[in-house]
Design a protein that fits this description.
This protein is an alpha/beta fold. It contains 16 helices and five strands.
Length: 319
């Protein structure tokens, strides 16, 4: 099951076991950063439960992908799959999507009316609430009773970036599944297969994507100049002495402090995922920034910084 979902082996195993045993929770919350498969998994879950061909209880098969139920869910026109999100709220309010900031109690009440109706044509009714962390207090309180006692064969799946942003009263009523950042090899392989990206470029993009396929897709469309930031160059390439001296000269003339600030910003993103590996480079960048603020010769500061970063990468790959 879930062959179409990238990574997330633990999540797939948990849900697959529940599906095969018939011990399916009545409510879940999928937690994790954007671009790691939370919404896709929820939709695939709905397809498995409603597939007209494969018997999910007796076999390991996922969806057939060909029956009317699978096709309707794929096209988002299945009457028993409901997305409770900003798009639906904007439709209900006859307002612009851009104006939606929170999920309101009126939207949750609309969902509750749908929950109370009979299943139309599928075997299960599924409600996907996203972004769950954007429910206002009234909406969250209104949802509690529905989470406690949904009708038979009804599943509610909340999708959120962070568990800490969800009220404990909701968390205590749902099963929490944490989605991990995708591996760089998973992302680079996917990019080569689906975006016609060569291996070197796929590897570079995967490194920048922070484990998110959504971020990786955004980077695919960027041009060479945008894509290969200086931080990424030092992470992925080896520089000759002449390259570094030329680089320092050009950047010193264009704006050394702005360049170092941009590298620090990118390094901090890496630090969240690889703190021990990135900390030495961040120290070098921060020290260089202090020197530039003291008006020390920019080319000298950059020469030293770039040689140090290059040495750091060569010696221990600490970038």
């Amino acid at each position: 099951m879930f062959e179409s979902i990238l990574g997330q082996k633990k999540i797939k195993k948990i849900i697959s076991n529940q599906v095969k045993s018939g011990k399916i929770a009545h409510a879940y919350i999928f937690v994790g950063q954007d671009g790691v498969g939370k919404r896709l998994t929820a939709v695939e879950f709905a397809k498995i439960l409603n597939c007209n061909v494969d018997d999910f209880i007796k076999t390991d098969a996922g969806t057939c992908g060909k029956c009317i139920s699978c096709k309707k869910i794929e096209k988002n026109i299945h009457p028993d799959l409901h997305f409770i999100d900003f798009a639906r709220q904007a439709e209900l309010e006859e307002e612009c999507l851009e104006k939606q900031r929170t999920l309101k109690i009126e939207t949750i009440r609309y969902m509750q009316k749908e929950v109370a109706t009979k299943i139309h044509e599928g075997k299960w009714k599924i409600f996907i609430i996203e972004p769950a962390e954007r429910m206002n207090a009234a909406a969250a309180n209104s949802l509690l009773k529905t989470l406690e006692e949904p009708p038979e064969n009804t599943i509610i799946i909340l999708i959120a970036k962070h568990k800490e942003t969800i009220p404990q009263t909701i968390l205590s009523r749902v099963q929490t599944l944490f989605f991990q950042p995708l591996g760089q090899n998973e992302i680079s392989s996917w990019l080569m297969l689906n975006c016609s990206v060569d291996a070197a470029k796929a590897r570079d993009i995967a490194e920048l994507s922070e484990g998110s396929l959504e971020n990786a897709n955004k980077l695919v469309g960027k041009n060479e100049k945008e894509e290969f930031s200086l931080w990424l160059k030092f992470k992925t390439r080896n520089f000759y002495i002449s390259d570094i001296l030329e680089l320092s000269k050009n950047i010193a003339a264009a704006g050394a402090l702005e360049c170092v600030d941009a590298m620090i910003a990118e390094a901090k993103k890496d630090f969240r995922m690889y703190p021990q590996r990135t900390a030495p480079a961040l120290d070098l960048l921060s020290a260089s920034r202090v020197l530039l603020l003291k008006n020390v010769n920019a080319m000298t500061v950059l020469d030293n910084l770039f040689f140090d970063l290059s040495d750091l990468k060569k010696m221990s790959g600490l970038l």
